[in-house]
Amino acid sequence: MIQADPPLAQTSPSLPQTPPTDLTGKVALITGAAHRIGAEIARTLHAAGADLALHYRLSAAGAQALQRELEQTRPGSVLLLEADLTACQAFPDLIARIQAFRGRLDILINNASSFYPTPFGQVSEAQWEDLLASNLKGPFFLAQAAAPLLRTARGCIVNLVDIHAERPHKDHPVYSIAKAGNAMMVKALARELGPEIRVNGIAPGIILWPAGEGATPSSKAELLGRTALGRPGSPGDVARAVLFLVREADYITGQVIAVDGGRTLQQ
Length: 267
Known about the structure:
The protein has 267 residues and is of the alpha/beta class. It contains seven helices and seven strands, in the order βαβαβαβαβαβααβ.
C-alpha cells in the first residue's frame, strides 16, 4: 500500500520585531552639552525618554537655555554640571552629584573637545597638554570614575572621536594624535569593561564648519567634492547614530562608526 507523503509542516509566520525600548528611567551624562553636536545629542536622548546630566565648562547661558527647553516637556529631568574636564580631581564629585540626582548612571557620552590648529614647529607644550587633556585624558578618567555606576546599570559609553583619528588633519597634528588615542580608548575600554559595559565611538566627518577656521566657499566645495555623498551632514546625523549605539546595539562594542557621508572613502 502506497502511503501519501505527510503534509508539509506549516511554517509559523515571522514574528514582528520587538521595537527598540525607550530610555525612560535611564540617566545620561553628556559632556560639552551646551551647544552644537552635544546639544543635539541631548535633545535626541531626552526625546527618547532619558533624564540628563549636562556638563558644560564656560557656556553657562547655553546650558541653562537648553535645560529650560528640555524641561518644558519633562520638568526636573535635567541636571546641569559645571566642570573643567582637564582637572580630573573633580570627577568623583561630578559622579556623586549624578548619583544624588537619580541614583544611577546608564550612559556616558564623551563629547567635550578642544579643537584648534597647531602647525608643526610652532606647537607649545601648553597646547599639547590642553588638546590631549580634553580629547584623551579627560574622557579616560571620567570613564574610570563613572564605571562603577555604569557597571551596576549595565550601561554604555560613546566617545565622539573624529575621522582625523585615521587621516591626520593638516596643521592639526596634536588634535589628530589625541583623537587617535581616543579611538584606541574605545577598543581598550570595551575590552576592560565588558561584559557589563559596552564602549563605542562615533567619528563625524563634515558636520559643522569649525568657527574661526576661515574656510572659503571654494575650500568648502573642494572638501565636499571629496565626500561620496557630496554634502555636509548635520548634528542630527551624529545624534541618531549615538541613539542607535545607546538604545539598539546591544551586541556592538569596541567599534568606531564613521558618520562622514563617505569622506574617508576618498583622498
